[in-house]
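Example (one chain per record):
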Amino acid sequence: MVHRLLIDSDPFETRVAVLEDERLVEVFVERHLERASVGNIYKGRVTRVLAGMQAAFVDIGLERDAFLYVRDAQPAPADADRAPESGESARREGDADGAAAALPIQELVAEGDEILVQVVKDPLPRKGARVSTQIALPARFLVLLPRSARSAVSRRIEEPEERQRLLEAVAELGAQAVIVRTAGEGRSAGELVADHAYLLGLWDEVEQRAGELAAPSLVHTELEPALRVVRDLVDESYEEILVEGAQTFRAVATFLDRVQPALAGRVRQHTDEVPLFEGQGLEQQLDAALRSKVWLKSGGYLIINPTEALVAIDVNTGRFVGGTSLEDTVFKTNLEAVRELVRQVRLRDLGGIIVVDLIDMELPENRAAVLEALQKEFAKDRARSKVLGLSDFGLVEITRKRSRANLRGVLTEPCPECHGDGRVKSAGTLLLAIRREILRAPGRFGGRDPLVLVHPAVEQALGPTERRVLADVERTLGKKVVVRADPSLHREQYELLTV
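Predicted structure:
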């Protein structure tokens, strides 16, 4: 599989796009004035300990107190089967966050304690950041776990002999635990030693700054977005790194020349007059990634609905009618949908619980083939995910790790008209409400005609059916009802006055 990395950077925003075989599969967007905090290390102060929730709130200097869960508050050896791929928390995770921990939270922290924590999940609109005391410092090939007890190898490195070689190599590095990242596969002991020395120096700096600063304070900032993505993703499979923005181009080229000199020659600066994302057709794809309906080439389509509790994805045949049988049509639609829905999950960075409603299939071999295809597609995903079995109703449950705000959360905000519900009252519903209010107290208008002020969109939507409602009111009152547009009104508001 051939990869390309496209980086568009200006003084206010950095956007990074990952293409697999010329298909956009991931995008990272970060506003420089609203920079993400995942990976940052803070010296915080515990403000509340909640024994009933086995958690604590920590003031780290952000708008909301951070949330420290009991499992993230105690050291844990790295788990070789769940080794993190980047600077995310190296804590062990069971099948559920509610699993019992070794020590209760009240024995680990107390109100007023000053503690060093790392952000593992960015704040959400109504939630503070999630933090961990289990610090993880990533470099190109290794992740240093200064508070952990056991080294490990990324689960994506599957060859037993290579895993054993790497474990033996890191055992020679010293007492502090490390995780060998996927990029460390095939690397020499000397390359691992150099990475380790860099990380030890970085940890010394963090400890020194933490000792000098008062809580709450920012102790260590993660790399800027473009360099972070280059560090975490770029390997020999990337044939090109195309950068728009002279300053970012120099930073990326210098960074790669230092950490992976063999790939530095693949960095090119975009100099065309047409902006990079526009010229590559990515602006349209980003706009499409904010819509709920996604069309498939066959004529089928997906409906993607993120909710507070889960993400629901519905697969439909749409305009695709097949050519042989209903079962064949359904099977082909499901197979096509699988590849696209996984791409959309990665592109939109959807996480938590995802429920996919596939079209019902009768043949067991077709059901098994679709489920296998879904698992293979998710195997390409860097985020940790788990695909559960296909139910009798054609539903597949998927869990996917979430550590940052998804694309919709970064690029959009709740609709001021519908308050984020995605729906507003129709013109007919509003008109019937107006009718009821007018007829409730017809004497309020005296001898004058009623004047109804509505949003311009409502006035424009008044069709023959709605005009019949107005005519009925006019017959009942014996007066003419005047409707006028008022742009200052909310879509669902109206005012009753007199002419």
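Caption: Residues 146 and 176 are 5 Å apart (CA to CA).
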